[in-house]
TrEMBL record:
<keyword id="KW-0028">Amino-acid biosynthesis</keyword>
<feature type="active site" description="Proton donor">
    <location>
        <position position="98"/>
    </location>
</feature>
<dbReference type="GO" id="GO:0009423">
    <property type="term" value="P:chorismate biosynthetic process"/>
</dbReference>
<dbReference type="GO" id="GO:0003855">
    <property type="term" value="F:3-dehydroquinate dehydratase activity"/>
</dbReference>
<keyword id="KW-0456">Lyase</keyword>
<comment type="pathway">
    <text>Metabolic intermediate biosynthesis; chorismate biosynthesis; chorismate from D-erythrose 4-phosphate and phosphoenolpyruvate: step 3/7.</text>
</comment>
<comment type="similarity">
    <text>Belongs to the type-II 3-dehydroquinase family.</text>
</comment>
<dbReference type="Pfam" id="PF01220">
    <property type="entry name" value="DHquinase_II"/>
</dbReference>
<dbReference type="InterPro" id="IPR001874">
    <property type="entry name" value="DHquinase_II"/>
</dbReference>
<protein>
    <recommendedName>
        <fullName>3-dehydroquinate dehydratase</fullName>
        <ecNumber>4.2.1.10</ecNumber>
    </recommendedName>
</protein>
<dbReference type="GO" id="GO:0019631">
    <property type="term" value="P:quinate catabolic process"/>
</dbReference>
<dbReference type="GO" id="GO:0008652">
    <property type="term" value="P:amino acid biosynthetic process"/>
</dbReference>
<feature type="binding site">
    <location>
        <position position="72"/>
    </location>
    <ligand>
        <name>substrate</name>
    </ligand>
</feature>
<feature type="binding site">
    <location>
        <position position="85"/>
    </location>
    <ligand>
        <name>substrate</name>
    </ligand>
</feature>
<dbReference type="InterPro" id="IPR036441">
    <property type="entry name" value="DHquinase_II_sf"/>
</dbReference>
<comment type="subunit">
    <text>Homododecamer.</text>
</comment>
<feature type="binding site">
    <location>
        <begin position="99"/>
        <end position="100"/>
    </location>
    <ligand>
        <name>substrate</name>
    </ligand>
</feature>
Length: 138
């Protein structure tokens, strides 16, 4: 059984409440239930933190034993050299995901410290991006 974890960064705990025109009106927990029901043969885990160091610690924890990481580091994508280095330092492949089209937003969101070390990047497809990332590991 494949082991895949989804790691979400800051403010993604507010999905369903925060800027629904950009992020939609559903919670991530509801979406995760749908994924788990659809992909019953995968051990799918979830972690969310608003704290940069906790995200780095989680990457270190799963980065040598899991089959894949789906990472939406949110705003840390554009600021955290530490998270980028953590992705570079682990063996588990990472797919970077963003709900919105980051290139249609503010210019600072066009830079990712994760992408150079990721297996791939998916953005602009809403929550569906997580499933696309999951399928890349199958």
């Amino acid at each position: 059984m494949k082991k895949i974890t989804i790691i979400n960064g800051p403010n993604l705990n507010l999905l369903g409440k925060r800027e629904p025109t950009i992020y939609g009106d559903g919670t991530f927990e509801d979406y995760l239930k749908k994924l788990k029901n659809k992909y019953v043969d995968i051990q799918l885990e979830y972690f969310q933190s608003n704290i940069e160091g906790e995200i780095i610690d989680k990457l270190h924890e799963v980065g040598f034993d899991y089959d894949g990481v789906i990472l939406n580091a949110a705003a840390y994508t554009h600021t955290s050299i530490g998270i980028g280095d953590a992705v570079k330092g682990i063996e588990t492949p990472v797919v970077e995901v963003h709900i919105s089209n980051i290139h249609a937003r503010e210019e600072f969101r066009h830079v990712s410290y994760i992408a150079p070390n990721a297996k791939g990047v998916i953005f602009g497809f809403g929550l569906k991006g997580y499933e696309l990332a999951l399928q890349s590991f199958l």
